[in-house]
Amino acid sequence: MKLLAPLLALAGLHIASAQQLSIKSPRPGTVVHRNTPTAMTVQTENNGTVQEVSVVLSILPCPDGSCPNAGEDLGTILSVGPFQPVGQPPEQTFNITVPDSFPVGYAELVATHFVLRGDKHAPFLQIAGEIVIVV
Fold it and tell me: pTM surpassing 0.85?
């Protein structure tokens, strides 16, 4: 039981850090058309001493309704570049296009965000995803 408490605390920390990045649009269950530009808005929290480095936007097919682990495979890369969020809470909108060759059906849109935190510039990676329907 003594081992369980630190593991639960660590799991809570992981969940809390995962909530710092989110995909505001498209919303879960949105129909996304292949070969058509779609707005994807990525939002983060204002954490003070964070230096933005980059963001990768990608999409993974979910065959049989089961999505793979985005931390192991980013799937089809839709955009790679700097992340320069504005406003409160900070967010940035990107235009993405799912390629015509991507399979129809359920898929997970993924935002992978890399920052340097604190005065020691500790590397930090965040991943957020939303399930959409590709047609």
Answer: no
